[in-house]
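quick one, two chains, predict together pls
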Amino acid sequence: MKKLLNIALNELLLLRKDRMAAVWMIILPLAMTTIMGLVFGGFGGESEPVAIDLPVVDHDGGEMAAMVLDILSQTENLQVETEYDEETARQLVTDGQRAGAVVIPSDFSTAITSGQPTALELVVVPGGQTTPLLEGMVRGVTSGFSNVQTTVEVAISEVQRATGSYDLDYEGIANRVVATTLERLEDPPVQAQITTVGSAEEEEFDIFGQVVPGYAVMFAMFTVLSAAGGILEEKERGTFKRLLIAPIPQWSLLGGKLLAQFLMGVGQIALMFLAGALVFHVKLGSSLLGLALITLATCWATTSLGILLVAVIRSRKQLHPITTLVILGSSAIGGSWYPLFLMPKGVQQVARVTLVAWAMEGYNRLMILGGSLSDVWVDIGVLVLYGAVCFGVGLKLFRFKEA
Amino acid sequence: MMNEPIVAVEGLVKRYGDVVAVDDISFQIQEGEIFGLLGPNGAGKTTTINVLCTYTEPTAGQVAVGGHSVTAEPEEVKRAIGVVPQDIALYPDLNAVENLRFFGRMYDVPKARLERRIGELLKLVGLAEHAPRRVEHYSGGMKRRLNLAVGLLSEPRFLMLDEPTVGVDPQSRNAIFENIQALNRQGLTILYTTHYMEEAELLCHRVAIMDEGRIIALDTPQNLINTLGAGIIHIGIKDVAEEMLTRLRALPQVKAVARRDDTLAFETVDAQRALLDIIGLFNETDTPMTSLEILEPNLESVFIQLTGKQLRDA
């Protein structure tokens, strides 16, 4: 056992002496995690809302037109621009520099207060991504003014019927209705009550909750399988033979190397999670024990896969491209790059042959879906079994001595 | 009185499928001896060492090292031997001390003794000043010397060196020779394999010449050289009549004549005088010569005489 530990320590010393190890194990994974997190989400989960620049051309200049501008200006995600004339505004839309533009006709205020039909014009290009959003916003505004106009008509009609007089202050009534409507816009008497259920924190999708474990698993596989390839390197260099003719049991020799590979994998994932928590504020979920067990099971399975690959592939030249293919392929379909539960069912089924899928399912359940340890027992069990099968077959096929 | 041999090999055979790497060899190595295995690449030297160090199981035969069977008691054999493999079996990313410390732990050398031993060995192989440097920055000769030091860590009774001077500069080669002779004077028994005959002549008390898995000669270097007599003459020919061969064999300075393909090999009493007689007879019979060579009496000539092949490109 002492020799096994000495061999493992020597492997870790060799890792520390390897100048490229820091790049592969720390700098590259963190850089990739940062880039992917920023590309697919936002830093720390907080993203700036997208503002749509909307030129508004006011030919009216009246009180109702001012009200339209006021409402649009207060609308979230809209940045109203009033400095353009109509021709320029239309050209900006045509050129694709603006998603749309609003034109307020010259008789807009008069028409509203006199009960005459009128229209706000929304200029858009067909098929624009934000066209439905702008349409909805402008329809909302026009709907409000239609209500105002209807209310003015009804109010005047009722006053006429009650007083029998047609000599009324139409404009004054209309202005009062509009003023009241505006007040009510601030504090509507009938409100929509939006009820949310469950925890807002759990439902919010934090991209780093996916990217950090995804890249941690992928780079842990690179680290572990690269270290496994070190056995072939030692065979080629002659140090493996030198150890075989020393008074060391074979199980100590191989066990020491596998222990070191396992610890490298655990260290890699732990480092990524630590950086994820400190730098990217990733939420680790409610079960740290579950995370630890998933991590240990993942590294066991990866280490065992390594000994299997080294047993089957007997030259480093062949091993390198094959391990790269295995790692990238299983990462792609196993959920390292994109949440497994959002993938098509067929892909999810195929992905079950990879250890990455079981690892990522466990991490996703704990870190994104708010699961507990009891939700990941199956994933842990499958990873342990996966490792046991690879280890058994790998050990059976592994050749300590070359002819 | 002959001591108990430290190595006893009897009828050793090693086959890899249809390939016979070692073909029924027997020899013994006495305590305190430097024993050379001389032969070209592929002669079976490394396979023999692999069996002696328990790395390879023999197909047949009995092999004992330090009184322990390599097949029945491999752990005892491992503890009695030191091996300096042909490969530079070191960790290039570690420095000399880290390499020695790691391998020392593998041989269960106690910590205090190991640190002392590391200092002694670095001094012995002349690397004390370079100890903190990574091995990857060492020259080929320095790596070979450190390779030797690792083999000596466990203070073995019997050291096997497999082509320890391959790719080494003359200075490092001389340093390795001096190390080996000094270690032997301290009582270490050494098995030395090489395909450089001058190394075997210089270092070894006895030499076994191997070719194609077999031992074709075994004796002290001087006795082997003495078998050549006063010199060997090789004469290239296109054709020679049986009558001519009879007349050549009858020359007074010629002990024996062997025909091998297009070459006649003359073992002589006196090479210079014999040459005059031989040339005279060739001129008299108008027999053409295609080449003429007088072989220096050394192990290389012994190998050529025994096999008809050059040692280095056999």
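Residues 43-47 of chain A have pLDDT under 50 and may be disordered.
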